[in-house]
Design brief:
Rossmann fold; alpha/beta; 477 residues; Single alpha-helices involved in coiled-coils or other helix-helix interfaces; single chain
C-alpha cells in the first residue's frame, strides 16, 4: 500500500464497479480524470483491470478506508449500486471515513423521498449529498450519458467540470445541469423513466398493428421503423426498434423478436411516477396505461385461456396498407408529443409542490442527448419553454399545438381501425383522450359531483354562485 499522501491523488471516487460503474469509471478516465474505484467483489475489480489500459487513471480497492485515502479533499464519491437498502448500507459504512464537506453522489435509480431523507441525515454530519439521475444505459455511461443532478448548488460546483466533460454533448452543450435542490435530480429522472414507459408502449402498439393487422414480417418492420427514424419520430427508441427487427436468433435462425415471451417486466420507476402524479394530482394517462399494460401482459396463462373463449373481429386490415402506415406514423408522432406533455406537466406541478424551481427548458436540453427518451422532438419542446418559461402545458405551445392539430385526424383514423379490428391500443387511446379532455372547456365532472352529493353529501359548487352547496336529491322540492 502506498503512503497516505501518495494515495491522495484521485479526482473522484466511484463505489460499484458493475457494468454501469465500470463504464462510467472508464468514461471519466478517458477525459483525464483520475478515478478511485471500490467494489467488495474481487471479480468485478479484476474485470475492470482487464478492460482498462495503462493510459487510464483508475485505481481500485476493496477497502472503503483506503478509498477515502486515495481521494483529494474535499472528496467526491459517486455511488452506482442498486437502489434501496444497498445505498443506505454503503453510506453507513462509508461515512466514518469521510470528513466535513465531503460529497456523496447517489447515481442509482433511488426514489426521490429516499434522496431527501439521506440528504437531511448527512447534512447533520456536515456531509454533502446529491441525487443524480443517469440515463443512457451501459453505452451512455461509457461514452456520454444524460446526467440529472440535484442537491446543494455548491456541491454541484465541486464536480461540475467532471460531469460536463463526461456527459453526452449536443453540439457544444453538455447534457447535464444542476436541476434544483434536494431530490430534484432523482425526481426528474423518475419522470424521464415514466415518459420512457409511455413511449415504449406507444411504439409497441404501432408494432402490434403492423404485425397483426397488416401482417408485416420483420424485414418490412425494420424498413418502416428505420424510415420513421429519419423523420419527425427520430430518436433513440425508434433507432433501437429498427435494429431489433434485424436480429436473428443464433439457435434457430428465426427473427429473435418472434421468440421473446410477451410478458413485460419493470423495476418500479414507472409505478413511482404514476403514484406521485396521483399525489400531486396531475393526470399522466399514457404513463398510467403503460404501467397497467405491463401488468396485464403478466397474465399470460389467463390471456391464452381467454383467447380460446372470447372471440373478437378478424384482425386483418383490408384497406390500403401503405396509406395506413403513413397515418400510423402521424398518430404515433401525435401520441409521443402528448406523452411528453404529460411528463412535463407533472414536472411543473412537482416543482411547485416540492420547491425544486425546475427550469423546464433546461430539463428538455439535458434530455436531448445520451438518454433513452432523446428525440428530435425535444428541440421543439426546449424551444417552447424558451419562448414561454411559464408555459402551463405543451399542448398549448403554438408550434406543437399546430402540429397536433394537423395530426389529430390520423390519430382518430388509426384508433377507428384498431377498434374495428379488436387490437388493443390503450396508449394511443389515452393520448387522444388527454388531448380531447384538455381542450374541452366543459367536462361531465358536474354529474360526478352531483352523484357524490347524492350518496355522500359531499357538496358541490355552482357556475352561477360562490360557495359550497348540498341538495337533498331523493326528495322533491
Amino acid at each position: 500500500m502506498a503512503g497516505h499522501d501518495q494515495q491522495k491523488q484521485c479526482d473522484i471516487g466511484l463505489i460499484g464497479l458493475g457494468v454501469m460503474g465500470s463504464s462510467f469509471a472508464l468514461n471519466m478516465a478517458d477525459h483525464g480524470f483520475s478515478v478511485a474505484g471500490y467494489n467488495r467483489e474481487e471479480e468485478k475489480i479484476r474485470r475492470l483491470a482487464e478492460i482498462k489500459s495503462e493510459h487510464h487513471k483508475i485505481e481500485t480497492t476493496r477497502d472503503l478506508r483506503q478509498l477515502a485515502q486515495m481521494l483529494r479533499t474535499p472528496r467526491a464519491i459517486v455511488l452506482l449500486v442498486p437502489a434501496g437498502p444497498a445505498v443506505d448500507a454503503v453510506i453507513e459504512n462509508l461515512v466514518p471515513h469521510l470528513e466535513r464537506g465531503d460529497l456523496i453522489i447517489d447515481s442509482g435509480n433511488s426514489h426521490f423521498t429516499d434522496t431527501d431523507r439521506r440528504g437531511a441525515a448527512l447534512d447533520v454530519k456536515g456531509l454533502r449529498f446529491m441525487g443524480m439521475g443517469m440515463s443512457g444505459g451501459e453505452s451512455g455511461a461509457r461514452h456520454g450519458p444524460s446526467l440529472m443532478p440535484g442537491g446543494p448548488e455548491q456541491a454541484y460546483a465541486r464536480v461540475r467540470p467532471i460531469l460536463e466533460a463526461v456527459a453526452a454533448h449536443v453540439g457544444a452543450m453538455p447534457c447535464v445541469a444542476h436541476l434544483g435542490p434536494g431530490s430534484a435530480g432523482h425526481y426528474v429522472k423518475m419522470v424521464h423513466n415514466g415518459i420512457e414507459y409511455g413511449m415504449m408502449q406507444l411504439i409497441a402498439e404501432s408494432y402490434d398493428l403492423m404485425k397483426r393487422a397488416l401482417d408485416l414480417h420483420t424485414d418490412q418492420l425494420h424498413i418502416v421503423y428505420e424510415r420513421w427514424n429519419r423523420r419527425a419520430l427520430n430518436g433513440y427508441l425508434m433507432e433501437i426498434t429498427a435494429e431489433i427487427f434485424l436480429r436473428k436468433d443464433e439457435r434457430t435462425g428465426q427473427p429473435l423478436i418472434d421468440l421473446i415471451l410477451d410478458e413485460a417486466r419493470q423495476k418500479g420507476t414507472g409505478e413511482w411516477t404514476v403514484a406521485d402524479a396521483l399525489q400531486v394530482q396531475v393526470p399522466t394517462l399514457n404513463i398510467d396505461a403503460a404501467v397497467m399494460m405491463r401488468h396485464l401482459s403478466g397474465f399470460k396463462a389467463q390471456r391464452q385461456a381467454a383467447a380460446l373463449l372470447i372471440k373478437g373481429p378478424d384482425p386483418l386490415y383490408a384497406g390500403d396498407k401503405p396509406a395506413f402506415i403513413d397515418r400510423l406514423e402521424n398518430a404515433l408522432h401525435a401520441a409521443v408529443i402528448i406523452t411528453y406533455a404529460q411528463g412535463m406537466a407533472l414536472l411543473k406541478q412537482a416543482s411547485a409542490v416540492y420547491g425544486y424551481h425546475l427550469n423546464l427548458e433546461t430539463v428538455a436540453r439535458v434530455w436531448t442527448g445520451g438518454c433513452i427518451i432523446r428525440s428530435a422532438l425535444l428541440a421543439d419542446i426546449q424551444a417552447a419553454y424558451k419562448a414561454d418559461p411559464q408555459l402551463e402545458n405543451l399542448l398549448v405551445a403554438p408550434p406543437l399545438n399546430q402540429v397536433l392539430t394537423s395530426l389529430q385526424a390520423d390519430l382518430r383514423a388509426v384508433l377507428r381501425v384498431a377498434v374495428d379490428l379488436g387490437i388493443p391500443v390503450p396508449g394511443l387511446m389515452m393520448a387522444l383522450a388527454y388531448w380531447d379532455a384538455y381542450r374541452s372547456s366543459r367536462l361531465p365532472a358536474n354529474l360526478i359531483m352531483a352523484q357524490r352529493d347524492y350518496f355522500g353529501s359531499h357538496t358541490y359548487e355552482r357556475v352561477d354562485a360562490k360557495g359550497k352547496f348540498h341538495t337533498r336529491w331523493d326528495r322533491s322540492g
